[in-house]
Amino acid sequence: MRDFQIAPSILSADFARLGEEVTNVLASGTDIVHFDVMDNHYVPNLTIGPLVCEALRKHGVKATIDVHLMVKPVDRIIPDFAKAGATYITFHPEASDHIDRSLALVRDSGCKAGLVFNPATPLDYLKYVMDKVDMILLMSVNPGFGGQSFIRSSLDKLREARKLIDASGRPIRLEIDGGVKVDNIREIAEAGADTFVAGSAIFSAAKASDANRYNSVVAAMRAELAKAKI
Predict the structure, then answer these.
(1) What is the CATH number of the domain that holds 161?
(2) Segments forming the whole domain that contains residue 73
């Protein structure tokens, strides 16, 4: 049985109460804090930087922090996020002039490294760096905005990535990001994913002030994952 992990994307959280939001969503049974870092250059949006990561660590967040860099170039910002408390740092191969060097920089900075593949980006890069990645993240929407619909061709890509991981024999996590919801998470798991980024599906589930408001949607996701045939 795969170790399924749910990674709420804080891009969809209430930033006026971010520390509280992250504390509550982790208490609901999620596993990983997912950071969507956008630079208004590689993608047409501007979001958060390492100071927010550092602030969450100071707030007392102990969970894995998964930093997805949608920035170009990436090397300048990698050490900053490592120092701020990131656990994983993933980036897009198109955003690095020297992919092998950038992956080495992540690991040399004390973090786990990963590559991110847009919907139309082939997995070919992995042939040369499988020994240097701890995570493969597949985008099931085009990067840059939350709340988009799941691109179904990502299921075939998940199957391809799962075969590569299994053939490598390495403990590489396979993450999916974009349009993940209660009604499709099981199918996504059956295609090969073990880590599920969900933003609006979790944070928009309820707007009440109840600290336990995320419990029902996370429990529903867990129930669907328990049914997955893998």
Answers:
(1) 3.20.20.70
(2) 5-226
For the segment 199-213, what is each residue's pLDDT rounded down to a tens digit? 989 988 765 556 677
Question: Is the peptide bond preceding residue 73 cis, with omega within 30 degrees of 0?
Answer: yes
Beta bridge partners, 196, equal 6, 176
| CA 69 to chain CA centroid, nearest Å | 10
The answer to whether the Cα torsion of 155, 185, 90, 130 is positive or negative is: negative
Question: How far, in Å, CA of 219 to CA of 169, rounded?
Answer: 31
Active site residue 177: yes
Q: How many domains are contained in the chain?
A: 1
Whole-number pLDDT of residue 175 = 98
Query: Is residue 108 flagged as an active site residue?
Result: no
What are the distances in angstroms from CA 56 to CA 23, 61, 161? 9, 6, 32
Which one from 36, 39, 134, 194 is the annotated catalytic residue? 36
Q: What pairs with residue 67 in β-bridges?
A: 35, 89
- Of the residues 39, 66, 134, 177, only one is catalytic, namely 177
The model's pTM is 0.95
